[in-house]
Amino acid sequence: MKDDDDYTKQYSQDKFWDKVKKNAVCAGSVVIEKSLCIFAALKDKDTPAWAKTVIIGSLGYFISPIDAIPDITPLVGFADDLGALTIAFATVATHIKDEHVEQAKKTMTQWFGSSET
Fold first, then answer.
1. Distance between CA 117 and CA 108 in Å, rounded?
2. Which of 14, 25, 79, 101 is spaced 20 to 30 Å from 117 by Cα?
3. How far, in Å, CA of 99 to CA of 96, rounded?
């Protein structure tokens, strides 16, 4: 498995949005909502640099074309991505504001008609 620094290098905002748009239905609402929530925290000027590094590493893993379980694997393809996002979410939880959660839910509602968490 690559180290976190390699996944940090994989991250870009454009790659993140491409991955989310192309895989929203396959990845499922939990994966997409977590990624949108930590993405909102990443964009917040109040989020400290160390937390942004954790977020970028997990989003880099999410968008990386090479990960532990290929995303094309039915049913479990995004399980490793969810794990990475969940660990990042828990690590930076004190910096995730209600507004980040609401922003993610709003986007989910716009895309899917409702937000499931």
1. 10
2. 14
3. 8
92 contacts 47 by C-beta, under 8 angstroms: yes
Nearest CA among 5, 56, 49, 4 for reference residue 35: 56
Over the chain (117 residues), what is each successive 10-residue block's mean pLDDT? 63 86 79 94 97 94 73 66 92 97 94 64
pLDDT at 95: 97
Q: Which residues contact 68 (CB under 8 A, 6 or more apart)?
A: 1, 80
3 vs 98: CA distance, rounded Å: 31
Up-side HSE of residue 106: CA atoms within 13 Å toward CB? 7
CA distance 66 to 24: 18
Q: Residue 1: its pLDDT value, please?
A: 43
| Residue keyed to tokens 């996944």 | 7
CA distances 43 to 5, 52, 72, Å, are: 20, 9, 29
